[in-house]
Amino acid sequence: MASNSSDGDSSKSPKQPPLPSPLRFSKFYQSNMRILITGGAGFIGSHLVDRLMENEKNEVIVVDNYFTGSKDNLKKWTGHPRFELIRHDITEPLIIEVDQIYHLACPASPIFYKYNAVKTIKTNVIGTLNMLGLAKRVGARILLTSTSEVYGDPLEHPQNESYWGNVNPIGVRSCYDEGKRVAETLMFDYHRQHGLEIRVARIFNTYGPRMNIDDGRVVSNFIAQALRGEPLTVQSPGTQTRSFCYVSDLVDGLIRLMAGSDTGPINLGNPGEFTVLELAETVKELVNPDVEIKMVENTPDDPRQRKPDITKAKELLQWEPKFQLRDGLPLMEEDFRLRLGVVKNN
Ligand SMILES: NC(=O)c1ccc[n+]([C@@H]2O[C@H](COP(=O)([O-])OP(=O)(O)OC[C@H]3O[C@@H](n4cnc5c(N)ncnc54)[C@H](O)[C@@H]3O)[C@@H](O)[C@H]2O)c1
Ligand SMILES: O=c1ccn([C@@H]2O[C@H](COP(=O)(O)OP(=O)(O)O[C@H]3OC[C@@H](O)[C@H](O)[C@H]3O)[C@@H](O)[C@H]2O)c(=O)[nH]1
């Protein structure tokens, strides 16, 4: 009988983890899961890429038209054998073989989604149809990043997934909120009619490093303004509320949703609720106590309150956010300081 004495005494020399098979490094190595991320060069998408690339069984393919995203967000993966970046507009069909699709492509900041409203709705409708057609052809599971904006200016508070929303169908935000509502409808119709494996996340305001400096959304605006010593522009009345989720928490929720068995829709967000004025005061206190807070005019149909009920995510995904606003803001400040070249004095 073969002796195992060559293993030695395990209490003296702990056994090393096995080395990956040499095949892993071969030209012909096949990963176990090929994952497509539309909009992967954007803020949330690029963080999702980072997380999925940590698993060496994943091969990640990003398609993006760089409208609001940037190759810079993915530069650490350029040339990696398990990573591929394709310039592609999802309003055009895409032929590719994949196992899973995270469908994020869509401008998300109000100033960008309103900039070309017709293109935004095309991205939500034709783009989502194209991705569903692809999922159907290859039998891939597909996850849509929908939004808390499907609740519109909500009459129920906090919002849970059974609330149908209060949305203006002809307003300036409709290209985005109605667009996402149609995208959700398409997801569920493909599920019922063609048996597609779908997942729908309703994401609430998410912030973190790598947001565009001039993205236009409130957290990035306030941090950039505070670092530049400019007034923080609070759009009136300032009493409107939002609930801010740190990006790593959100990405964790998306991955759990994709891996789990529930189709959703599932709210992913941080239930900590703040008025916009409270957010401005917090940024002022943490980043630059010398800046002033200035009231400016708001835009039409701005939702007056927003807070997720995350009971479903807790129960079905065992997910809840870990970062409180005061933990996340300094991490974003650090990233913005680096990119803006503003050093911290103290
Ligand atoms: N960040 C949030 O607070 C938030 C909240 C709710 C929902 N979401 C959703 O999450 C997703 C990602 O949002 P984000 O904050 O990372 O925004 P983002 O603007 O940084 O990312 C969107 C990405 O999609 C790409 N894109 C846009 N139109 C495209 C098209 N036609 N074809 C290919 N690529 C296209 C952009 O270039 C960009 O890289 C969006 O679907 C958004 O609606 C985000
Ligand atoms: O400089 C600013 C920017 C924004 N705001 C206010 O801050 C609040 C949040 O505005 P943002 O532009 O960050 O984002 P919104 O909550 O309106 O929409 C977001 O909702 C969820 C996602 O789908 C999208 O990321 C985005 O549409 C609004 O009440 C807005 O009026 C300011 O007071 N000052």
In terms of topology, how is this protein built?
Blueprint (H helix, E strand, L loop, with lengths): L32 E6 L4 H11 L4 E7 L18 E5 L12 E4 L6 H6 L1 H22 L2 E7 L26 H21 L3 E6 L2 E2 L10 H11 L3 E4 L5 E3 L1 E2 H13 L6 E3 L4 E3 H12 L5 E4 L14 H7 L7 H16 L6
Parallel strand pairs: 1-2, 1-4, 2-3, 4-5, 5-6, 6-11, 7-10, 8-13
Antiparallel strand pairs: 9-12
Helix pairs in contact: 1-6, 3-4, 5-7, 5-9, 7-9
The protein binds nicotinamide-adenine-dinucleotide and uridine-5'-diphosphate-xylopyranose.
Uridine-5'-diphosphate-xylopyranose binds next to helix 5 and strand 8.
Give an overview of the whole structure.
By secondary structure, the chain is of the alpha/beta class. It has a single domain, classed as Rossmann fold (3-Layer(aba) Sandwich). It contains 9 helices and 13 strands. The protein has helices at 43-53, 110-115, 117-138, 174-194, 218-228, 247-259, 276-287, 311-317, 325-340, and strands spanning 33-38, 58-64, 83-87, 100-103, 141-147, 198-203, 206-207, 232-235, 241-243, 245-246, 266-268, 273-275, 293-296. The chain has a 7-stranded parallel beta sheet with strand order 3-2-1-4-5-6-11, sandwiched between helices. Strands 7-10 form a two-stranded parallel ribbon. Helix 4 links the parallel strand 5 (141-147) and strand 6. Helix 3 packs parallel to helix 4 (174-194), helix 5 (218-228) runs parallel beside helix 7 and helix 5 (218-228) crosses helix 9 (325-340). It is globular and about 55 Å long. Mean pLDDT is 93; it is low at 1-11. Bound molecules: nicotinamide-adenine-dinucleotide and uridine-5'-diphosphate-xylopyranose (UDX). Residues 108, 110, 147-149, 205, 217-218, 221, 233-235, 240, 242, 276, 298, 302 line the site of uridine-5'-diphosphate-xylopyranose.
